[in-house]
Design a protein that fits this description.
Helix content: 25-40%
Strand content: 15-25%
Distance between the termini: 123 Å
Low-confidence stretches: 4-11, 13-33
Number of strands: 7
Radius of gyration: 28 Å
Structural class: alpha/beta
Strand order of the largest sheet: 3-2-1-4-5-7-6
């Protein structure tokens, strides 16, 4: 009788499982860390989707056209010719279209003037959304100025050489930038010495009516708050950001544009058609619940509604101008070098020279 063998009950060496423990470490990437607020890919898809419906997209261009007009008016105060201008975040080339309009000066007391396009030699319109950028490529204004459309991988990274442009314009695009200090520094880099950067962006209390009413509707129907309106830069921060990026002779001002809509549903439909829907990282996926939207409509009308039944929406615009440092450029006098005291002037004592 053979002894009992235990070999069949032992695991084969080739089938034994080995557990390997490994420890992974988080390594900080070089450079200053970037705080991500917006999902850039989501914003790209929103703009692409909105631009596919060409007619609707053109109908909701009223805000971009108005802001582009006010932005281009600031070029009237700069008496020079611009060989090459960059339009960063060009959307549907709204600035290019405004530059070709006749008599751009809004002052009726002045004689009619030539289009601003006669004061530049070439315009490069850059945007990450190819569909939106080329939406109006068949319109007549394209034949009225030398225009190049440049599709960027991302507006947060400018693929241009140093000292490339005589001016950089940007209208309603910077409010979706995650690392605004970095982009402003890159803009300063691609500008030629003594060249201006002129931009307009949403800021501060833009859509404060919609923000507050949606928060109250969320609290009432869901017992909590979810962010439905994107956070925006404050005007008090813009001047500091421009200064840190190396710009000189700064000018920052604010302008409110109030648009009346028949309902909050019409407002949100226009925002979606503009490609300006919410793109915050970590936002709730899917549409806002129906009961929240209905509650929002009632709250919005109660708190902010007009007497004629419409609802106002406030768009706060931050306009900024900064100049890249150049030789012979004017600069403010050093602190303490003044010869008169503003206190004496305000108190009615006249001008007294400081000893």
């Amino acid at each position: 009788m053979k002894p009992l063998s235990l070999r069949p009950f032992l695991p084969h060496p080739a089938t034994r499982r080995r557990t390997c423990l490994a420890r992974n470490y988080a390594i900080q990437a070089p450079g200053v860390p970037t705080f991500q607020v917006f999902n850039r890919n989501t914003k790209y898809l929103q703009k692409e989707r909105a631009a596919t419906d060409v007619e609707t997209s053109r109908k909701v261009d009223y805000l971009r056209d108005e802001v582009a007009t006010r932005l281009c008016e600031r070029l009237l105060d700069i008496n020079r010719h611009f060989p090459h201008i960059l339009d960063l975040g060009a959307n549907a080339c709204n600035i290019a279209r405004i530059l070709t309009l006749p008599n751009p000066d809004p002052d009726p007391s002045k004689p009619a003037s030539s289009p601003l396009s006669t004061r530049l030699s070439h315009l490069t319109a850059a945007d990450s959304s190819s569909t939106l950028l080329h939406r109006d490529s068949d319109l007549p204004f394209n034949n009225l100025l030398p225009l190049t459309r440049d599709v960027l991988h991302d507006e947060e990274f400018l693929p241009y050489d140093e000292n490339s442009f005589d001016a950089v314009l940007s209208s309603l695009s910077l409010h979706w930038i995650n690392d605004l200090p970095s982009v402003l520094s890159q803009i300063n880099r691609v500008l030629k010495p003594d060249a201006p950067f002129i931009a307009a962006m949403f800021g501060g209390d833009t859509l404060f009516e919609l923000r507050t009413s949606l928060q109250l509707a969320d609290l009432d129907r869901r017992g909590g708050v979810s962010p439905h309106v994107s956070p925006l830069a404050d005007v008090r921060d813009v001047g500091g950001l421009l200064g840190k990026a190396g710009f000189k002779m700064l000018t920052v001002d604010v302008d409110d544009i109030i648009v009346d809509y028949p309902s909050t549903f019409a407002l949100m439909m226009d925002l979606q058609a503009m490609g300006e829907s919410n793109a915050i990282l970590g936002r709730e996926q899917g549409a806002i619940r129906r009961d929240v939207l209905l509650a929002n409509e009632g709250i919005y009308r109660e708190l902010h509604g007009n007497a004629d039944g419409t609802v106002p929406a406030t768009f706060r615009m931050i306009y900024m101008i900064g100049w890249k440092k150049g030789e012979g450029q004017q600069s403010p006098l050093p602190r303490g070098s003044g010869m008169a005291s503003i206190k004496d002037i305000l108190e009615g004592g006249g001008i007294k020279e400081n000893n």
